[in-house]
Amino acid sequence: MKILHVSKKYPQALGGDAVVVFNLRRQQQAAGHDVVVVTSNCDEISGAPGIYKFGLRDTPAKLDEITPRRIISLLMLFFRMFAIVRKERPDVIHTHSIDIAYVVSLAAHVYRIPTIHTFHIVTFYDKHQSLLRRKVELWLAKKAKPQATTVPNTYDLKKLHQAGLDQTVLLPNGVDLPFWRAYVHADQTADFIFVTVGRLEQQKGYEYLVRATALLAMTLPVSLRVIIAGEGSQKAALSELIQREHVEDMVTLVGRKSPEEVRQLLSQADAAVFPSLYETTPVTMLEAWAASVPVIVSSVGILREVPADFDAAYVVPPEDEETLAEAMSQCVIDTHMRQLVADNGYKEATKYTWPKVAQTAEAIYRSVQ
Question: Where are the alpha helices (DSSP H) in 163-234?
Answer without folding.
Answer: 177-181, 206-217
